[in-house]
Amino acid sequence: NAVDLGLIPTKQGAGRLDVFKSYNSSITVDKPILQFGNVVAPIKDDYIIIKNVRSYPIQLSISTSPATRISTNVTYSSLSSNITSLTLSPLEEKAIGLTLSSPNAGGKFYGIISINEDGREYRLPYYFARFSRVNVGVISPESNFYLAPVIIITDETYKDLQYTANIYGGDTASFLIGSGSYNVYAIGDFVNDLNYVLMENIQVPIASN
Fold it and tell me: How many C-beta neighbours within 10 Å does residue 31 have?
């Protein structure tokens, strides 16, 4: 029953609440947005629970939109429902199974689950990510060199940039990023104020560690 503001779910959630539509709604859904989290496996299952709040039976149809990759606007056929139509008796509720097939791409994705009742559409956003985990450590070439750099990792456009505070000898910094080509930098100084920058280019596969 929310008004779609044209933003992605991570910015608007389900949208702006429409109180009048909510008051006149025939159903409730247990989740305002379906969050799959970071999906590494090829398949991930979840569900929503739909309840008829009317005193008479209602008929519903359910469909899912392709998932849109936020960074590129490319769509992928990802989500399917185990039920496409159903009738709910008064005050009856039913669980609807949803299966996410992971796309062969990394990044953040979103789409819409549509629940239709006699020409009225209820829109439930779904969201998931396909990130890889990259662990970065810096090893000193000499035992008397004390390294405590800041770690920066960025794609080649420098738009997707992440960084950490100083890490210390033997520690690692962990990043969750999409697949692709990245530059990793270790920036710091020695105790004698000699500054240094270390750089490595890495190729990150989809949903890897």
Answer: 15
Per DSSP bridges, beta strands 43-52 and 85-88 are unpaired
**Residue 158: left (phi > 0), alpha (psi -120 to 50), or beta?**
left
Using CA atoms, how far residue 141 sits from 169, 172, 174, in Å, is 11, 16, 22
The span from the CA of 142 to the CA of 199, in Å, is 18
pTM: 0.73
Write out the chain's pLDDT in tens, 209 residues: 666 667 677 676 666 776 767 667 889 999 888 999 999 888 999 999 999 999 999 999 999 999 998 878 889 988 999 999 999 999 999 999 999 999 988 888 999 999 999 888 888 999 999 988 888 887 776 666 667 788 888 887 777 677 776 666 667 788 888 888 899 988 886 555 667 788 899 998 888 88
Tell me which amino acid residue 204 is.
V
